[in-house]
Design a protein that fits this description.
Layout: H1 2-18, E1 49-53, E2 61-65, H2 68-76, E3 87-91, E4 98-100, E5 105-107, E6 119-121, H3 131-148
Length: 153
């Protein structure tokens, strides 16, 4: 009986340790995972993004992106985009650390995987864009430069 108890306890511990957290970014298998929107490899550790979310009746899921532009445009098409559980994470372009995309400061003029040109950073910066202004910038690039160069996704 004690052996059976130990086996059940071990199984529960392993299952509990292997479950993904319900919040925050997850590890990326660089160069092995694809962008949810454009299907390019997620490989640039300084300009990647993640969205955690999903329908209200399901557990959240993490979606990975090669550029914050892909994440913003993809998320806008999801019915659950305004759900309180929805999180957006982006890497700080200076050090690759994950930061909350809604709280980040964005600088323009960067060379990014999908040419949206935004670098996120955790620290406030005079003249930087907030998330709303960064989203407007993304749509401006998408509707002008990408459309005319055949990059529509």
């Amino acid at each position: 009986m004690r052996r059976m108890f130990n086996l059940v306890l071990f199984t529960l511990l392993v299952a509990g340790c292997s479950q993904q957290a319900d919040t925050g970014p997850v590890d990326v298998r660089w160069d092995k995972e694809s962008c949810e929107r454009c299907a390019m490899a997620v490989s640039d550790r300084n300009y990647s993004a993640q969205v955690r979310g999903g329908p209200a009746d399901k557990n959240t899921k993490v979606y990975k992106f090669d550029d914050i532009g892909c994440a913003v445009i993809w998320l806008d098409k999801q019915a659950w985009k305004t759900d309180a559980r929805t999180e957006i994470w982006v890497t700080d372009y200076r050090n690759g650390k994950w930061i909350d995309a809604r709280k980040a400061a964005y600088v323009t003029g960067k060379v990014t995987p999908m040419a949206y040109g935004l670098g996120a950073q955790a620290d406030p910066l005079e003249g930087a864009l907030d998330f709303a202004a960064a989203s407007e910038h993304i749509y401006m690039v998408e509707n002008s430069e990408h459309k005319h160069k055949g990059h529509m996704h």
